[in-house]
Amino acid sequence: MGFVKVINTLEVQRIYVSQECKGKHIGKLLIQNAIEIAKSNNLNYIWLGVWESNINAIKFYEKQVFKKFDTHIFKLGEDEQTDNLMKLIL
């Protein structure tokens, strides 16, 4: 097993918005809040992993100016899925 030590960054682990709340800019507000927290702590960037097949989420993060920088395998039970790693440089 390998790992990467990431210093001076903020990881967004999960953002879920219920179906009835989608389109109300809640996700954008949550990301903006994460950006404010990261900036106030003088962090270098925000990063996250998003399932490569979750096209809507990827488009959302791209609109927030996140860029793909790598991938990694996420194991869900016996199923191995590929996550895109994305970051927003502050």
Topology overview:
Layout: E1 9-12, H1 26-40, E2 45-51, H2 55-63, E3 67-76, E4 79-89
Parallel strand pairs: 1-2
Antiparallel strand pairs: 2-4, 3-4
Walk me through what this model shows:
- By secondary structure, the protein is α+β, with helices and mostly antiparallel strands.
- 27% of the residues lie in helices and 36% in strands.
- It contains two helices and four strands.
- The chain has helices spanning 26-40, 55-63, and strands at 9-12, 45-51, 67-76, 79-89.
- A four-stranded mixed sheet has the order 1-2-4-3.
- β3 (67-76) and β4 form a beta hairpin.
- The protein is globular and about 40 Å long.
- 10% of the residues are buried.
- The model has no long low-confidence stretch (mean pLDDT 91).
Helix count equals 2
Order of helices and strands: EHEHEE
| Overall average pLDDT | 91
Strand portion: 35-45%
Protein structure class: alpha+beta
Main sheet: strand order: 1-2-4-3
As residue ranges, the low-confidence spans are none
- Which oligomerization state do the chains in this entry correspond to? single chain
Structure summarized in a few sentences:
About 25% of the residues lie in helices and about 35% in strands.
Features:
90 residues, globular, 4 strands, alpha+beta, single chain
